[in-house]
Amino acid sequence: MAPKGSSKRKAPNDGSTTHTPTLAEQLSFLHSPRPFKNPDYTKNVNRRTKNLKTVLSQERERERLERERKRQEKEELEQTMDVDGEVRQREAEVEDIPTYSSIEAPPSLLPQRHYCDITGLEAPYTDPRTGLRYHDKSVYELIKGLSASAAKDYLAARGVNPIVR
C-alpha cells in the first residue's frame, strides 16, 4: 500500500477545459425566471407581526366596543318614544358580526353520515334483523354470527334503544 500523498497529482486547471454540467445542474430551476413572483414587490417595513395573544386581545376589545355601541343605541331607542308610548323599531336590523371567538354555524344541509358499529368506517348498509350498521359483506358475515345480547350491546354503545327481533 502506497503512503499518503504519494499518488500522482492532477495538473492544475489552466482554463482550457470546459466545465460539463452535471445532471442535477441541467435539471435545476435555480437560474430560470420565476413568472409567479412580482418583480415590483417591496416589503412593507413598517408592518410588524402580531402574536396570537395580541390578536385575541384586539378581537376581545373590538367585541367589547361593539357590545357597548349596541347598548348605547338601545338606550337611545328607549329614550325616543312614539306618541303612543311604543319604542320605535329600527328599520335595518344590526347583523351579528362573526369573530374568531364567537362563531356560530347553522346546521349542515348535508345528510348525517352513518358509521359502522363494528369497524367505525362509513356504513352504507343496515342489517334488517339487528339494526346494526355495517361497512361491507365481511362485517355482515360477522354480524350474522352475533348473539342477540352482543347486538344489543353494540346498539346501546351507539345510543339506540336496542330492539332485536
TrEMBL record:
<protein>
    <submittedName>
        <fullName>Uncharacterized protein</fullName>
    </submittedName>
</protein>
